[in-house]
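Anyone? Bumping this.
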Amino acid sequence: MKLPVDDSTNLGFQIAPMIDVVFVIMLFFMVMAGAVKTERELLTTLPGTAESSTGDLPDEQIISISESGEVLLNDEPIDSPTSSDLPQLVGALSRLKQSSDNAHSTMLVTIASDENAKYSRAVDVLDACAAAHVSNVTFTVSEVE
Amino acid sequence: MAGGGGSAESGEPEFQVAPMIDVLLVILVFFMMITSAQVLKVDQTIKLPVAKHGEKKPEDVSEGYINVAWIGGKKVVKFEDSKNPIKPEDLIPILRARVAKDKKYRVVIRASREMPAGQVSELMDICGQAGLSDVSFAAINRD
């Protein structure tokens, strides 16, 4: 069925609203691009499986996590229990990694967490290791005596 | 693609449906690609911890996921896309079979941030018993 055409109605293509829509979509993507959550991975090896690539004894550093969230690097408290970025730990690990590389030895980090410590705290420490570019990281849990 | 609109008789450009549909389809395909690539395919009961310096997921590696939610002070373990919880011990034969097929098989533990570290360690022990050494922890880049 042919509909009657009203000559007075302007159905011509309007470029301005089209550009408006395109700009709104572009703006949406630009804003959303910064807020997109992506899944990341923190690599570890299971205890007892880490190997030294040079065949020498690895340069082992031990990071302990207490139940309250306190972090200790080789039994020395470092950073505050509430800090999730752990800047002092990142700095200390970076320096230790640098000295290990200079000595051509492999740096191995063992994270020994209290079994009742929050898992998110262990991930904070693993993240600090990733920030310091330490690749040989082992995660263990020390049982409460 | 449709050509420019406009009737030769009036000289007035008319609204063309075809190019509009073209544009909408392109936008739709774009949305579909973005959502499939970026949306977190994680169980909504699991609140992943935040790690800004984590690595991106490797593309061409054979890997399995252990999803661990912390509900009412108890851990609920699910393997990959399964909707049914599984006992941690039952994972050993499954993982062992996967390792037998592919020596480079790896496991990613997607554990909720509230759970105690000891509970995650038990799953790592399970992975060790299955002959796995490459275990990663899943996290998100921002809260």
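Late reply, but here is one note on the structure posted above: Residues 17-38 of chain B form the longest helix (22 residues).
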